[in-house]
Amino acid sequence: MRTVSISALNIVMPSPHSPERYVELFHNAYKLRRAINIRGDYVALLGACRDDMVEGRPVVVGELYMYFELKVDSQWFNTLENKIADENEKAQINIPGHLKPHFEVTPFVFFPHKHRILFISKEIDGAFTPNQAHRLFEGLLNAASLQTKYGQVEITIEPSIDTLSKILEMSTIKYLHIEVKPPNPDDQEAAERRLFESLYKQGADKQVVELHSNQQSGLTPSNEIRLLAKIAQSNGNVTGRGIDDGGGVITLSTQEHPLEERVTYNPKTQTRLSMLISTAFELLPRIIRRELK
Predict the structure, then answer these.
(1) What global pTM score does this model have?
(2) Is 176 in contact with 240 (CB distance < 8 Å)?
């Protein structure tokens, strides 16, 4: 048996934003074959991308590639002589430029109707962390050639299922920061549409709300603030600071606690991709419903 973690990103493009347009965005991003720096000398790219039908629903499945961008002309170290390698020694290095070390492959599934991408973020022999995936798609989907056609694409790391609850259920909330970028209008319930109507009319790209309290009892967030926070967890960020039951100061942020759903499966009877797809179909409704409660 093998245990992995699955994480998710929310990918939102400006209007028009039909599922077909999201699929088109992914395929055009794939055609760029563009590598994005995600950590140190590690780069990643959209390595494979194809349309599929799963349980009667169109999805995009594929693979994320990651490798080490070896810089042959950088300093090298001679471990035998315990010194920096000289130019003659470096001249002996002969690594073809098209061969890249430390290569890893991570499967993904993208749901265009809910514009969420789910992927394996951790397993025994490697990891493609939520932050690394965010850097990849932030850089790739906002490439200049794509921005001209699709506009600025907003990407949010889906937080752990219970992070927002922990923030709003602090014994005493002293500070609350909510940054929300309005989601697609057709994703919203009636209450959400009313909440964002003035933002759309003013052409605002995001709303930031900060609440502070010096009172001993702390803040009591209104229903409107709670709704804003629920939307922001998948479309922005929510940070809370308060006092726990033991009297200590606690700070929590949805941005710093990404969703990492642990799943155990048998690799002898199930592929990584089939496991990911089956888990994603179970996990996606939980991610979506938490916004609408």
Answers:
(1) 0.85
(2) yes
